[in-house]
Structures are given as structure tokens and as C-alpha cells.
Amino acid sequence: MKNIKKKLIVILAFGLILSISTPVFATETGEQNESTTEIAPPTQTTTKNNSVEEQKTKKELLKANANAVVGKTNLSFKIGDTPAAQDFVTVNDASNNPTFTFKNGQPVTNASGNYSIEIQVTFDDNTSTDITVNYIVKEAAPLATLKTTTPVIELGSKPTPNQFATPAAGAKLSFKSGAPSTKKTGTFTTTIVASKDGKTSELIVTYKVLDQEPPKISVNPDDYPFIIKGETITPSTFVTATDNSGKVTLTFKPGYEPTYSRLGMHAFVVIATDPSGNTTEFYSYYVIVSDKPTLKAPTLDLNRSTPSILYGVTMPNLGVIAEDEDGNLIGWSIEDEKGNFTITFETPLQPGDIFALYSSTEVEYSEETYYIYDPETLKIRELNESPFEVKTINTKNSNTTNSNTKNSNVTQKIIPKTGDANPNPFTLFGFILISSSVIILRKK
């Protein structure tokens, strides 16, 4: 009974405790639920705030550094240039994709001087900055410059623009009105046009047309080295001259004037001068020879001489020359100390051939003696009567109506060549002289 009562008391006590504690638990639970309901909105706000902070942090990380873009220093342009905004700055960091604009309009470049410009730099983080840049505008380099000295153009030549001016790199020069005339000497003007990249400039230039080409000297084809004693000698005796001007004067150089009487070899210098003062000099030799025979003529040994070889004698140490009827050299010899000479013909004499012999030095000569290879006797004999002698030649006449052939003698007059009144007896020594003469042309 006591145990049952005790259990009931415990149950009642537990129930009482439970009944008392339940409202409290309910109350605390309700309060807890209310707290949870009220806190929920702040929890959402915190999440949003955290997202904004993260975005701000990212933006701060992407913001350009202070030296990402800086203005250029020592910047200069030429008059007429049209620079872009980016030409004024240096980009050190392009990770924020900067863009550039002129804050107050285009820069001044139409006049030389010192200027400044504001460049607005905008980054992709929506931030921007202004940079002030100083710059200089300089005079534009000329497309061409005139020559430092007055151009001199050759008479009759075809000039080019580059003879008058020097173009800048990449520029081209041309004549405004075609190539100027150079037909006359004098001082003239012309206009040169320089062009590059669509830009042009004109330069007026003064120039001179001068004859700078010296005359040309040609040696006369005659055997001018030999001059007969007493003959008049002029520069034209030796040479002729031409010039692009059409006019030229020939004179002897002072100190080299010719002599007219002294026998022997002499030097001469001829100067050709044109109207502009250009000169050409010609230097050579000539020989004054005797105007009449002064040496003893050679004597031919008719007994020893043959159509191939002539033997004879004359004054010692002379030259003996053999010429044919036309005055052509056919043989020559230098005598020994006793005056003996031997002339060997390259082509033997033919019956009826006439030849002349004479002795000679460089300046003196003998009379000519004439000989014939007689067609009748087939021996060489002297023509003593005169240079003209009647010669009989055996010929054969054919009779067309008769089959018989008859031999008959036909008389023909042979006229050996005598030359001028004063023949030139220096064929041999002329060859020697011409081959050893000195010919010099000098142009100034």
C-alpha cells in the first residue's frame, strides 16, 4: 500500500512538473521560432552584401595602376601633321584596355611653336584620367633644296632636274615647263617642281649655260712632218680643229713657233681655242728639208745589178731609196762607210720596168737617176737623155681574120714619174720619223 501510494506520489509529482514545465517549453519554443523568423531576412541581406563586396574587390583588383598610361616627352610634329590622341601618350599597361580622346579638340599643328594638349584616358573599369602633354610644332622639311652653287649646264646638252636641286628622301623632281633650252650660252632661270605623297613645292633656280667641251684636233692626212725650206708654216699646215660652238682658233703655243730656214727636226705645239676659252693642245714634230738637191746621186753598178738585187755606190752613210714609176717605195738601203749599197727587191723587176734612185738624209737629198730594165737586152740601163724616153716593147697582135700570129714591134712612150719641181725624197726617213714621233693631245 505504501509502495502504491509512493508510486502515485511520484507520478503525480512528475505530472505536476510536466504540467508546469510544458507552458514554459512552449513559450521558449515559440520565442525561438519567432527569433528564427525574424533573423531570416538579415541572413538574406548579409548574402547580398557579401556579393557586392566580392564585386567591389574584383573591381579594385582590375583598376588600372597609376602609371598605366603616361604622356610622352620631347614630342614634336611638323607643320601640317595630323596626329592621333594615342600619338601623345605611352601605354605601359594595356590590361585595362585604355582608350584615348582629345579633351578640348584637335591639337594645333598649322604653325610652328610650343603647345600643350589634354588627353583623356578611359579604362574598362569606367575610370578615366586626364594627361597634359607638351609638344613642339616644327617647320616642315623642304621637299627639295637648291644647289649651293649656281648650276652650270653644258652647251647643247639635255639637262636633268637633279642638276638644279637636291630632292628630299622619297621626293621626285621635274621641270615645270619642260627641259630648258641649252642652245645658247648665258644666264637663265627655270622652275623645278618637287613632289611627295601628294604634296608639291616649286623652286625657281638660276643657272648658266656654258661651253665646257674643248675643241677636237685632227691630224692632217698629208705627210705634214716634211716642210720644204722657206715654205710658210701655219697651224693648219699640221692639223684641223672642230668645236661644238662651230668656231675655233688655231695658234702656235708661245715658245713653239715654227722655224722656216734651219734644216732638221723641230717640235711644235698647236693650241685650239673655242669662244668659251676651252683649249686643246697638240704636240708633235716636223722636219725642214732642203729646197734643192745638195747630195751626190747614187751610181748603179750596171754590170753586177740584176732584176732582183741592185748594187752601187754613193756618199758614205747615206740612205738610198728606190721608187717605181708611181713614186712607190720598192726598196732601200743604208750605205756602209765606203758608200757601198745593196737593194734587194721583194718582187723582181719585169722587162720594161722603170725605177728611180736617189740618196737622202733626214733633211737633204740628191737628184734622182732613172733606170729601165730593158725588155730587149734584159739588162738594166740608165735613162740619160731625159725622164721621157721612147721604149720599144715586143707585143703580139692577133689577126681575127687570119690564124697566123705575127710578132711586131709597137713603140710606146714611157713617162717616168718626176714628181714636183722639188720632189719629196724622204720616203724611207719619213717612215722612220712618223713611227717614232710623239703625238700628245692635252685638253684644258
UniProtKB/TrEMBL annotation:
Key words of the record? Cell wall, Peptidoglycan-anchor, Secreted, Signal
Spans of biased composition, class Low complexity?
Answer: 36-47
Gram-positive cocci surface proteins LPxTG domain segment(s): 415-444
**Cellular location(s):** Secreted, Cell wall
Q: Specify the species.
A: Listeria farberi
Membrane topology category: Peptidoglycan-anchor
Broad class of the protein's primary localization? secreted
Say yes or no: keyword Oxidoreductase present: no
Give the highest taxon in the source lineage: Bacteria
Q: Where is this region: Disordered?
A: 29-50
* Signal peptide annotation: 1-26
This one is known as LPXTG cell wall anchor domain-containing protein
